[in-house]
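Q: Here's a chain of 410 amino acids. Please give me its 3D structure as tokens.
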Amino acid sequence: MKKIYLNLRCLFYIFLIVPFIRLEGFVNNETIDALYSGMKLCSVIILFVWGVYKFKFDKFIFLYGTYILLYILSANMNNTMSLSLYVAILPGLVLILLLKIVIRHNDQIIFLKYLSNFFMLLVISNLLFLIIYPDGIWQEVTRQVNLYYELTPVHLLGKSNAVTPLLLIMSSFILIKDKLVNNKITAYGIIGLFIVLLSVILTKSSTGILGSLVYLFVILIFSLKLQSKLNKAINFRLYFIIGLIITLAVVFFQFQNNFSYIFELLFDKDITFSNRTNVWNLTFQYIRENFVLKNYLLGSGLSGYSAIIYAGRYAHAHNHLLHIFVQSGVFGVCIYIYLIYSALKSISNGQKQEPNVIYIILAANIFATVLMFITETYTTPMIVLLLYFSYRIDCFTNYKGVSSKKKGDV
């Protein structure tokens, strides 16, 4: 009887997650879009009511809550408060509450089973639609270039560039469930990984393909070290710091301009990353012309970046961290960076105590996502779920069927 109860509860968990993974290929239909909005509102209410019961803070939740409050404060100061603010920032917090509920009810493993099966269904469906509709289920008009309109293909799970982080996160949960349940990566996990990589290739997104290759490369290289004596020396936080340095070099100092000939020869791409450097420069110009001290500290609010559209026709900064800086200032971007650092710290600590490919998979996913941050801005709340799952990974790797409590809970 207990098993049936747990299964029903886990089915309910998945039902609550569904609204936060939009089937973008169908949301151009007003009825489906309205259905998603209604389901999302229900999920938010249910998870808030359920999540606050016996709620316990940890450092990650405190910092993410502060991050949300910064957005609200900035929006208030800049008169940009709107419903879209809460639609954009609350899903991440709601998914954190969901994971805390799972841990509180000791449903970690069975939750991963249901979640991985749900993700497998989504990645298979997405691949089938990519094959049937290679140019997208529908096309979105993103901007006008001279007399022509630029169309962006929208696939089942989203646009070409935007869908990769979501696919990689799904792949990670499929692989982690496989390892935790079977104590090895089976055909199930390998097939899921293959489907995800093939899907990214079919989207023809250069950023997505590069991120996926880094994801696969990190998993393979560090997995080979598991049997070596150096495995305990892996410090994933160091590689994240290196990634931040690369971001500064590429976005802020645009160091790559010194190697434009080599870059174009090897990758057959212009050094502007398909005009992204121009977007960055427009963003820097906007900051210089419009920011005062309070904006540097707290940003210009959620819709602050829209002011750039007049000059460059772009709705976001094409760099995740730069976009966060425009919206929430130095405080916001520092908190966000520290959340990533905290997730990698938990992964590194777990790897030192008991080396496991699970930690490598999570680190590879975060590395690939941070790399894609350089040229893209992502809004999927699943990134927050990935970070909090990484932060609480000990509750899953040390699962004994009894309550797990992370040091730092109060």
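Q: Can you summarize the key feature?
A: Confidence is low (pLDDT under 50) at residues 1-5, 402-410.
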